[in-house]
Each structure stands twice: as structure tokens, then as C-alpha cells.
Amino acid sequence: MNENLVPKDLRKEYTNKEILSIEQKYMIPAVTHYYQDPILIVGGEGALVKDNSGKQYIDLFSGICTKITGHHHPKFVATLKWQIDQLVYTSTLYSSIPYAVLSQKLAQIAPSGLTQTFIVNSGSEANESALFMAQKYKNNPYIVACTHAYHGRTQLTREISSAGWRTVPESHPPCVRFTPYGYCYRCSFGKIYPDCDMECARYLREVIRTQTNSAIAAFIVEPIQGVGGIIQPPPEFFQITYEIVKEYDGIFIADEVQTGFGRTGDHWWGIQNAKVNPDIITIAKGFGSGIPIAGFLTRPEYAAEYTTTDSFTTFGGNPLSCAAAVAVIEIIQEEQYLKKAIKLGEDFKRQLQTLKAHHKIIGDVRGQGMMQGIELVCDQVSKEPATQEMLKIMEICRQNGLFIGKGGIDGNVIRIQPPLELTHEQVEEACQILDIAFTEVEHTMQKGT
Ligand code: PMP
Question: Ligand 1: distance of its center to the CA of 288 in Å?
Fold first, then answer.
């Protein structure tokens, strides 16, 4: 490759300061970074990322739950390079091989009956499209979403995201209703599982009967809430809500943007852990392992009424993104990520439970596979969210070479959603660093500083 052809400004070495000053001048302030002194990432290998000083970090957040195959996976890189040499772009006004091959592969790994694919560019767009299709098919505007959900930032998906992102009251669409999610650590009804009779799930019937025309277009739900704080309801939550959705003739949409592609282990899709077969799944993030691609999978009868006028997208289904996604699916199969995620997840959970036994700041440990969460509290009894402490823990982890994610409506949940390339040794090292961070922060809490 002739590197001299690559724009000089891209090849130049920059300091953090230089990049930050460009950002401050030319990016809108809404583009913010983690950490007081933001990190400039320049490369990575597997589950490790490297900053511009050469320091390496174990990446437990994979960007945002996205770089599923890790950095520099040889098959991923080779596929992209090969596809760039063939064809980077054509629109879906023409046939292209990668989109066709990808749809066929998705049908092979899809939940039963979801044989038809529509490819778009982001998780928000995937949800927006799926919801539109459901509303049109059912000729009904009502959508029920869950408290603490996150489904995106287009106008509709923002409005079905209850985890603190509904910022413009005037724009709330009239068709959105909310029902409680199964958040056992902070139960909406003050009950304790399993004596609760799953009141959270059953409340959906109340919502539909009293706040809709006793029918809905769709119920949309994350199998494990990600942005909301790695909240995992008992499996009955999905079984009961599924039955209620069907009782009222609705479409059950599983938002698999975070839980998809083997992240929760054992199955391709998080909802399959609850043995529920959804009508639509929406996918993004790990789908392209960093190359922008998203979409939904659905039943032919719903797809049949979704026309070109309803669905066109300029970049959706482009050859480069589709080729990347084909490589991702094959890597997951060849590297047996589904098995690996469950095994490594159990290992991780065991070590996190040990940390919980030693640290008062840990209120709850939850999740499964490569999607685990640690909810931090100032006090185990009052469960006051440890929001400021979370920020300190992130900084200490960073100093010690570890990236973690942040979630929850109060920003007090550590999100662990690493590349599936993570190793057992890295899990151990990560837990040692978390231990150091919890100890240090608990020490300052005791001193009241
Ligand atoms: N659904 C879920 C569950 C998500 O976590 C996200 C993004 N965090 C989205 C949808 C929206 O995806 P995107 O940012 O690609 O639009």
C-alpha cells in the first residue's frame, strides 16, 4: 500500500491537547468524552486498546458494546480490505453480493420464523423502522416500552427511552405508553422476587387496558437493558409480557442492539434465554463490530406490507458494511463465541460476587455472559446511588489500565460489555483493578472526602 496517498493530516502524530483543541473549536459541545482528561485512542489488539502514549488498557466496554470481534481480528480486517478492493458502495437500487449473502446468513441464525431482513445504519433507525412497520401492519399507533429503556435518539426512539433522555416535553408523541421493567433490585412495586408474582410483567395488561384502545401495535423491550444499567429481569418477565402482547394482538419486538450476536452467551439472541420467540428483533452495535450497520429481522407477513416508500435508505445495505457483518457472523461461529461468552461470563460473575462480598459500595451484581453490571450505592440499606463515586472509580480504573462503561438513570452502574476476544487472564486482571478502585473509593467515603 502506498501510504503517501493517505491524507497527511491523518498520518500526523498528535498530542491529546492538539486534538482536544480541534474538537472544542469545531465539534458541537454535545460531543463529550469519558474521563476528566480524555484519552486519545490510536489502536488496539484483541480486547486491548492503545492510547497515543503507547499505554494499553483492557477494554471492558468495546467502544460502546460494539467491537465484538476485538481490534485487528485478521478475518475481519482481511474481509474489509478485500471488499474495499471490490466495491465500497452501491445503493439497493442495484443488487450486490454482500447484502444478499448477509440476509441469507442472518436467516440461518435468526429466531424461528424471522427470515426477512432489512438493513439500515444505526440502532435508532432500526427501531424506528421496525416500529413504523408494526404500526402500519396493525393500523394502530400505540407502542408500549419499558421504564429505564433506551432505544435511540431519533424523535420516536428518544420518546420510548425512559432512562432520562426525554428532554423536550412538547414533542412527546401521543402514542407512547410505558410499563415497568423487571428491575428486581429496585422493584417498582416494592416486592421481592420470586414472591412478587411478577407484578411488573402483569402490569402491562393494566397499561394496555387503561391507556390504549385495548390493542397495541407493538411492545418493544431489551432482553437485558444496557444503557439503563445492565438490568436483567427474571425470564418469566418476557414469557408473561409475551402472552399479554399476544392477548391484545400486538407485535413483540426484542431490541437486541446490545444483547445480540452472542453477547449473553449460549444463544445468538438475548431473548432466547427466556425461551420467547419474538416477532421482530432489531440489531446494531456488534453486528458490524464497529462498521456502521443495523437492521431488523422479521416474519414475511409483516415485511410484505412494508413498501419501498416506507423503507428506503441510501447507505443501508451497502457492500462494505454488509461484508463486515458477514465476517462478524463467521468469526462468532468459528471462534465459538457463544460458548466462550457463557463460560467467561460465569468466571467473571464469580469474581464479581467475591468483590461484592468485600465491598460495601457494591449494591448489586447482575447480567450474564459478556454483559454484566455492578450497581454502586453509598449505602446498602438506603441504596442511594453512588454517582460521584462511579466517576472516581472510572478514573482509577483508567489510571490502572482498564476501561469500564457507565450506565443507569443515576450513572451509578458499571457496564461490562467487552469484546468477545477477552481472555481469562484479562478477566482476572480487570477484577484486580476493580478491587483496587473500590478499595480506594471506599476509603475516601469513610473519611468523608
Ligand atoms: N437500542 C439499544 C438497546 C441501544 O443500546 C442503543 C444505543 N445505545 C440503540 C438502540 C440506538 O442505537 P444507535 O446509537 O446505533 O442509534
Answer: 14
